[in-house]
Amino acid sequence: MNEIRRPVGPASRIVCLAAVLLCGPCFAAPVVLSRNGAYVAIERYAPNIVRITIATDYATAASPPGYGFVARPDAGGFQHTEVTGGDDFRSSALRLHVDSQPLPSAPTVGERYFAPPLPPVALEIQNALGQTVLSMTGWQMAPHTVNGEHTFQVGASFEAAADEHFYGLGQNQDGILDLRGRTIDCKHWYDDPHGETVCVPFMVSSRGYGIVWDNPSDTHVYPGVNGQTLWQSKVGERVSFFVILGGDADALYAGYAKLTGRTPIPPRAAFGLIQSKARYASQQEILDVARTYRRKGYPLDIMVLDWFYWTRMGQLDFDPAAFPDPQAMNRDLHALGIRSLISVWPRFEPDSRYFNELDAKGYFLKNKDGKTQVGLPFRADRAGALIDATNPQALDWFFDHVRDNILARGFDYLWLDETEPDLVPDGFFFKIGSGDRYHNVFPLLYIDGMSERLRRYRPDKRVLILARAAYLGSQRTGAIFWSSDIDPSWEALRHQIPTGLNMTASGIAYWGNDIGGWQPLPKASSATHPPLIDPAGARDVVGEDYDYPELFTRWFEYGTFLPILRIHGERKHTEIWAYGPQAEAILARYDRLRYRLIPYIYSLAWRTYRTGTPFMRALWMDFPKDPKVATLGDEYMFGPDFLVAPVTRQAQTRKQVYLPAGTDWYDYWTNERVSGGRTISVDAPIDRIPVFVRAGSILPLGAVVPSTATSQAIEHIKVYPGRDGKFDLYDDDGVSYDYQRGAGRVTHLHWDDAAHRLTASGSEKILQRPVKALLEVVGSGH
Length: 782
Description:
Layout: E1 3-4, H1 10-23, E2 31-35, E3 38-46, E4 49-55, H2 58-62, E5 79-83, E6 86-90, E7 94-99, H3 109-113, E8 123-127, E9 132-146, E10 149-159, E11 166-168, E12 184-186, E13 202-205, E14 209-213, E15 219-225, E16 228-236, E17 239-245, H4 249-260, E18 273-275, H5 283-296, E19 302-305, H6 326-335, E20 339-344, E21 347-348, H7 355-361, E22 374-376, E23 381-386, H8 392-405, E24 413-416, E25 429-430, E26 433-434, H9 442-457, E27 465-467, E28 479-482, H10 490-505, E29 511-512, H11 539-542, H12 548-559, E30 565-567, H13 581-596, H14 598-611, E31 616-617, H15 619-622, E32 636-638, E33 642-644, E34 654-659, E35 664-667, E36 673-675, E37 678-683, E38 691-694, E39 698-702, E40 714-719, E41 725-731, E42 745-752, E43 757-762, H16 771-774, E44 775-777
Helix pairs in contact: 5-6, 8-9, 12-13
């Protein structure tokens, strides 16, 4: 047998006993197999989750996973046996076979002149039905020097079936859903021409498995290229990855949550309208905007204060001329039922008041000479030095000063901008090591560290952090993410849909974008048709970009059905009345619709917390047996009930929409019932985004309220007949963490289609009225 077993002396027995008492039985430690000079470690985390690590020395193979993981190994339910040709690991959910291959007797001609191959390692994973879903065919460790460090490029290759499709890997904004046949440079990169890339190295396959790649360096992934999928990381001494198997998509995301952490429920305010601009120049401007929302009767929950409210980058102060009393501003906002979110940057100019102190303490990112790196010449970046969030002492200092100088003025939530970081770490050094080795880990350590400290500071208030980059485990921090500084163009809008679907497919449930795009508007319009929105009344904002009010309207309609709805951009005005009266009437209608949907959305957030599954979902998640949805990236599910097909082309008033097979669908606007499994042409006038509801759906709709600070009654429960249905309506205080201690309330709604009857059980306090009084059955006249 090729399993390596270390001798167990008295000291080892003591360690083992401690492991039993603290962590469970000793067999949860990895099983390390010897393969002709390579070591293959197998760790079992759940019946459907295994970790595989391959290295050329025992200690490296047996070492724990890197950043982002919170689960402990658990070998319960697994059986390891030696079989002909290798080793088998079996559970109720999978069989993992690790081959035992002899070395070739003599090198080939090519091997005499080039680097000899590593000892061969191959493995195969089957699901509970005995079907092979994943086969690893080879691994790589190529020596090279990176940032002065002798290391390896590491990688692994896997067979890719001809009909296999791939999703996830974070945020890539080239507008394509299926990753098959592409080259994905999995790294945080603000300057990508399509829009910022974000690396979350979790990839899901249509064959019922997900791979979580355990390496934070710049990683290239080639899914389904020439019959194989190849992963290659720039820096490492081992190949380390997890495999999750699942009978459906939800099982894969439950496994990912087990490995990297649960997604908390954001404060309820996060699901309302968030109003931002680059930038509001004074506290008076912020208050004027907030009061205008209230005067016009348009719901609003959060006002955002973006950058340069300070006197100098890194000063951590307020310009007294523009913001003479931030605390009074926040009191006024709170009196309106509005919360505040403020941008904080981790950068310090050399002339700022804290620079010398932080430099002396060694709290900044360093260059190869051990000196503080200030800015980036290649980008003309003069924003100063970067706080080293990988250093806990540096993060303690940073949070304490943010708390005392900023949060103490009454601000509710934090916007941690530039979390990639924008000061690209390649060639530089963090406290934990080389910026090349740890290229992708900064956002996790920065956001997670600030989140933990925020929770200690305000233990009874949920953390909400707006952030621009993520990594494995970032979903557990209380952060919501956005797609960075995208263009205000129709192309950018089209690309946002598959971009967001792959981000949520990476286990990041709370994603959105700058409604309308962030970059400055072009000087002239590129429209080829007359605009559908009259730009009269908006010229002060849009100039000669006369189709922009139409673009903003379509974008806001799409945003209504995103996990996070947030207006932002570098425009003179960004509010929903800034684009002319025709646009304003439509935008106000969708703003109110968003608030009617909050009971539904909030219930989905509770589901995500319990299960790990995202609620903005590409169609392949819910209709895996329908081959037509595998590459469909311009429509999606919003929760289990809504199918959303945004309009993304200028002057478009009809859209081809595919309705997945296996169910009937209702047009949300007309209540027309349509059978699935076909593409239909849908009317899409400027005030209508194509939306369909699956037969059997139960939709709780709330009363329109000024903000989520106002108690919201359930106004209607709409049922779409055609099959039995159920929905768990959830509610809690929307602010605290009491829900984690079971303080929430759930009403279980059930529709019996044959009896044409809706029943409710559980906590009926949420409904406040009898279910019959709330019921509206679509198509029945009552």
